Amino acid sequence: MEEHQCCKQIRTDRAFYSHQCPRKGTIVVNGKWYCWQHDPERVARLCKENQEKFDRKHQASRDERYRRLAEQDVCKGVSTEELEELGTNALRELLDILKGD
Ligand SMILES: [Zn+2]
User: How many CB atoms lie within 10 A of CB 23?
Assistant: First the structure.
């Protein structure tokens, strides 16, 4: 059986040029050969898994932010001046939290 090379172009971080993946193609997708590593289905699955991991991580940090903001009960029994003062502080703290990424 004729051997086919993986069609994937690879670019390394330190190179401006790209080269073709040297591995042997093991799967054909839309008429193109891919090796096990560049199998589009595998790549799509890994991308999806990474995306889900990313979403979970950021969901957690968002919840933490909202929880902390909810703990800052700035509107209880305070005068307008105090409220403005507290509002400014709360805004500053919000910005600090947002910067804390
Ligand atoms: Zn490949």
Answer: 16
d(CA 101, CA 96): 9
Residue 29 β-bridge partners: 32
Report how far residue 27's alpha carbon sits from residue 7's, in angstroms, rounded to the nearest whole number: 11
Which residues are found with C-beta within 5 Å of the ion, ligand 1? 6, 8, 21, 23, 35, 38
Q: How far does the centroid of ligand 1 lie from the alpha carbon of residue 26, in Å?
A: 9
Three-class DSSP category at 18: strand
Separation of alpha carbons 53 and 47, rounded Å: 10
pLDDT tens for the 101 residues of the chain, in order: 678 999 998 887 676 778 899 999 999 999 999 999 999 999 888 888 888 888 888 887 777 776 666 666 544 454 555 545 555 665 566 567 666 65
